[in-house]
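FAQ: What does a ligand-bound record look like?

Like this one, built around heme C:
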Amino acid sequence: MPLALSLLLALHPPFAQAETAGTAPRQTGDAALADPLAFTRPSANLGFENSFLFNFGNRLFRKDWASSSDSQVPSGLGPLYNAPSCHACHLRDGRGQPFQAPGQPSQALVLRLSVPATGQADMPAPAATRPDPVYGVQIQGRATAGHSAEFRLGLSHTSRVVRLSGGAVAHLARPQYRLSEPAYGALNPDVTISPRIAPQMIGLGLLEAVPEADILALADPDDRDGDGISGRAMRVWSPAQGRPMLGRFGLRAETATLLDQTARAFAFDMGLSSPLFPDPAGDCTPAQRRCRAQAGAGADLSMDALRRVAFYSRNLAVPARRGADRPLVRRGEGVFHRTGCAACHRASFVTDPDAEWPEQRGQRIWPYTDMLLHDMGPDLADDGPDGMRREWRTPPLWGIGLTRVVSGHDRLLHDGRARGLLEAILWHGGEAAPHRDRVIAMPPADRAALIAFLESL
Ligand code: HEC
Ligand code: HEC
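The answer part, i.e. the structure of the complex:
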């Protein structure tokens, strides 16, 4: 609203707006602050023609595969699945809500499974793992009519106290998952369960277009420079490209491209097959005989449909920062860098001028991630009988200040355990333990500035 007009409204009580001036959110000039749809917009440089492609992808992203208008025509969903649409987990293109009720994880929380692969002990984890022989790569908590969901999921918390400088106290609650009512027998005794919440969807095409060499240049797996930060690049097989590539997507960078991630999500989260994941039974193993027998035949999705959904995922815009010039925010930016957070949450990259897709070429971006895996310590690790998996990919921090507005909650980290930004920092361990300790010990005003900076991203 122009300043003159808002003054006018404030000076003239008869206007309805003026009556609510005291309680209404202040006009900041940036609508994103109060916009739950802030993550759903296409990037500004999509041409007119491409906006159709984006909208088409969006429709498939939101399509509810469980509600077929004609129940005689199978939709292809399942038989075992986690959620009936991409949107059900990535709600409004934001991160999923981890708990739907106290003691009950939501469908947006996926429990991935792995057991040590025999005969490959010399390979580094997680390469030396394979899916659970009965339950597959992840637990599906839902099934179509006539089939049984794999488990019932329950949840409890153990909590511990962290005392910060200035007398503040934080209570960190660690989730513990309970699997009951197994429908297909026992899990493998050596299984490691890795809980993961659906992440936000913005800026992914830009991250896909960061030159591989620039990410690899940051990797220092053996910490040769002795700064306490290693950073490991993940190598994964890309079904879309038919070759090993740098892993970029997923919370452990286990997927190389957005097309791969899309096809994988359709296959394992929804049981929908495609040319890249052609098995019509999705994540049903040979031990789940009934599921395999009734899974249908042929691909549920064409390559074209996959490409459209990937196009949508590639082109969701990153909202502008809010209040970046406020003195508190600027001070917090200084604290962020002085504390060493940018050693992993690397502020900026320039995307490849020759990137595959024209919309993502040659842009200076500010994602606050190095796209590498870091040892985050035992508290954040997946704990299994074959040891702990302590590594996670540094998540991008852009948009993180809009989590509450977009997703209606402020649950952060890979499993949504942290309630807000400060708790997320306090959970840091491993390579980031010194950084966490600096935040605990710093003057409270610096801490407040740091949080204000993160809120502005
Ligand atoms: C059951 C919930 C669920 C559904 C349904 C789902 N996702 Fe996800 N999504 C996740 C989780 C959990 C992750 C993290 C996966 C990991 O770490 O391996 C993820 C990761 C992603 C990523 C990577 C983001 C990043 O920052 O690395 C993309 C892209 C994505 N999903 C797209 C999709 C698309 C497209 C669909 C529909 C075809 C979909 N998802 C369906 C839960 C879901
Ligand atoms: C050693 C690398 C490293 C350092 C140093 C580091 N982080 Fe992180 N950060 C990570 C990783 C990896 C995660 C994801 C951990 C998880 O999900 O379990 C993360 C998660 C976060 C999150 C939550 C993001 C989300 O999407 O849920 C915030 C906020 C954050 N870091 C802020 C900071 C701040 C502030 C600092 C400095 C005090 C810092 N980090 C230092 C690696 C690092």
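Follow-up question: can I read anything off the structure? Yes, for example: Residues 61, 82-83, 86, 88-90, 107-108, 110, 196-199, 204, 249-252, 254, 258, 261-262, 265-266, 269-270, 309, 313 surround heme C (ligand 1) (CB under 6 Å).
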